[in-house]
Amino acid sequence: MAKKMKAAVLHAIGDLRVEEVDRPSITAPDQALVKIRAVGVCGSDVHFYERGRIGPYVVKDPVILGHESAGEVVEVGKAVANLRPGDKVAIEPGVPDRTCWYCKTGRYNLCAAVPFMGTPPWNGAFCEYVAWPADFCFKLPEGLSFEQGAMTEPLAVGMQGTKRGGVGVGHSVVVLGCGPIGLVTLQAAKARGATQIIATDVQQSRLELAAKLGATDIINAKDVDPVERVRELSDGGVDVALETAGTVATTQQACAMVRMGGVVTLIGMPAELDFELPVLDIICREYDVRGVFRYCNCYPPALALLGARKVDVNSLITHRFPLDEAKAAVDFAKDRKDVAIKVMVEVG
Ligand SMILES: [Zn+2]
Questions:
Q1: From the CA of 107, how far away is ligand 1's center (Å)?
Q2: Taking the model in full, what pTM does it have?
Q3: Cα dihedral angle (182, 186, 187, 191), rounded to 10 degrees?
Q4: What is the pLDDT of residues 17-31, one digit of tens each?
Q5: How far is the CA of 49 from the centre of ligand 1 (A)?
Q6: 265-302, pLDDT tens digit by residue?
Q7: What does the alpha-carbon distance between residue 312 and residue 270 come to, in Å, rounded to a whole number?
Q8: How far is the CA of 285 from the centre of ligand 1 (A)?
Q9: What's the CA-to-centroid distance between 53 and ligand 1, angstroms?
Q10: Nearest Cα to 157, choosing from 67, 85, 87?
């Protein structure tokens, strides 16, 4: 009989239960079995819990959510050379096929065949054990906590967004939205050499945290016109506008905030499938509008920044719940956006 473990299983909208399920075991020689220790609650977990779907991904059968995870290796397959039992690792939650044109050309995040943790029908990490390809488990630098390891996932999004934006030394940037992704994106921009980092949001407490984490200017869009203010601060427009709020208004603002020839990157996922962008403005001012989908080769640099203490993710972790209270954790992330930035599930 298979060994059992605890897992937080989403059965239907709002129906998240902690129950006993079969414990996974290594099924291929390149896998590691990881004892999960910390998992962040992401907006997408909340979305599946609230709505039962994200685009084409629909909760039909019970699924374990969670994809921002770190843990300890307890067993490795015969072909694994990079890990051994006892290693602490961050787990990259999407594993591409490694063989298609996108994988071969270095854009594996666009691979069509990516099973992604906590995205139906694939199980995630709100549980005690995960069996995962060892080349998508990354050793934590010395002294990092499991929580910091779990935060590698959102940080990887910030790394990808700033890479796609071409953020470099001496650049001016604006980060729209100071949720978890905005706060790691602004730190990624700083690490890449941006010197003017403007942050916008409508929540003052988040803006103050942004300032603590490296924003040089903060703008509360409730009080002033953020476009006008960014243009003033940046002498007509920033080099790169990084949109993380995922709203129609902030996406349009991002376009208006960028300088001629600059770059707008769209990182936040809008609820609306389609909406208007200022096409004539894009043409005449020759700025690029670029999508950002997850990340590609971003775990190693993200972990290096964490290891060098160049990025602070601990300040983003505002609340902690044990795995037994996973439902309360997701409810809290859903209902208390006024105080919650990153809610962490601790797995004993
Ligand atoms: Zn592929």
A1: 8
A2: 0.96
A3: 140
A4: 999 999 999 999 999
A5: 29
A6: 999 988 888 899 999 999 999 999 999 999 999 999 99
A7: 27
A8: 35
A9: 24
A10: 67
